[in-house]
Design a protein that fits this description.
Layout (H helix, E strand, L loop, with lengths): L35 H23 L6 H25 L18 H25 L4 H30 L4 H4 L2 H26 L3 H31 L4 H4 L1 H29 L1 H34 L2 H8 L5
């Protein structure tokens, strides 16, 4: 009596039929376990990092005290909340500190862990000056001294997550590391500028809010260019399917591009034309849309990468030159 051997089918995430070569009926690469928690972390630390860069610039402006304070506090919030959510994603949450047991320059995960730790500590120092500076002038001096290192590590926080994804064997993430990093970095700047613009308007500092909104629009335009470069490289390698098809494609097009870039541009344009109370409300809607759009873009990239890992043709195309 011969035993019947069942060959495992490809995962349902594969949206197209694949009748070519496989590895015993399985995908060649394994999809990651990254979910919305990882997407939230990428967005939170990206906004936090860009906020420190903005704080470093505002701290040198004669009337930038209010913006500096809010940017530093926003950076502290993002550097604290983001890792807390990420820890919930770990399989052994109580051992998150094990990532700091080694320092390995060749490991994006190791370098990212240390970068996050440094950034969080520096953000705490800069925020300390805002909270305790009036009572203890020394705290203010420490805060100002920590601002430049905080801005440097903050710039890294906006792009290192893209480098971490690109260092994996997932075909879609590994195919375009440089434009993907530019996409994540510009989205971080757009999100931070939008969040701070909302805070500045709430504080009555409309002038600086408008400058931040202009910065957000410029960063959004740069993000659109970076996204176009990323998608072109993926298309050249035959890996762009997951970002164009199904629910993930809709999330990328509707959330990442329409809500994140088109809506803010239209809202700002209409707001400046009509003016009045409605004209003042539309920039706030634009800022919210840009933050949500940046989050949708990152989540779409994560989903698309996982779908790409489940497609055997993507794995083979990423490891050899294929004529299309």
């Amino acid at each position: 009596m011969s035993a019947r051997i069942e060959r495992p089918a490809l995962p349902p995430a594969v949206q197209q039929e694949w009748r070519g070569e496989t590895y015993h009926g399985r995908p060649v690469t394994k999809a990651s376990s990254f979910d919305w928690k990882v997407s939230f972390y990428i967005v939170a630390v990206g906004i936090a990092g860009a906020s420190q860069v903005i704080a470093a610039i505002a701290n040198r402006q004669p009337e930038g005290a209010g913006l500096t304070r809010r940017a530093r506090l926003l950076a502290l919030a993002g550097s604290a909340i983001g890792p807390l959510v990420l820890v919930q994603h770990l399989k052994t949450r109580s051992r998150w500190y094990n990532m700091l047991r080694i320092f390995r320059p060749t490991s994006p995960m190791s370098m990212g862990s240390w970068l996050l730790t440094l950034f969080g500590g520096l953000s705490a120092l800069t925020a300390m000056g805002e909270v305790l500076g009036r009572r203890w002038p020394f705290a203010r001096r420490v805060s100002d001294a920590a601002q430049l290192p905080a801005a440097v590590t903050g710039a890294g926080m906006g792009v290192y997550t893209a480098g971490l994804l690109a260092s994996t064997s997932t075909p879609l993430w590994a195919a375009a590391p440089a434009p993907l990093a530019a996409q994540f970095g510009t989205a971080s700047v757009a999100g931070a500028a939008s969040a701070l613009a909302l805070l500045q308007r709430a504080a009555g500092e409309v002038g600086s809010a408008r400058r931040l909104e202009t910065l957000a629009l410029l960063a959004g335009a740069a993000e659109l260019l970076a996204a176009g470069t990323t998608e072109k490289r993926l298309a050249d390698k035959g890996l762009d399917g997951p970002l164009r098809e199904g629910k993930t494609g809709a999330l990328n097009a509707t959330g990442g591009k329409a809500i994140g870039i088109a809506v803010p541009l239209v809202a700002h344009g209409i707001g400046r034309v009509i003016g009045g109370r409605a004209g003042a409300l539309l920039p706030e809607i634009a800022s919210f849309a840009m933050i949500l759009g940046g989050a949708a873009m990152r989540h779409a990239v994560l989903r698309a990468g996982n779908e790409s890992a489940c497609r055997p043709d993507h794995a083979f195309r990423s490891t050899q030159r294929v004529r299309r």
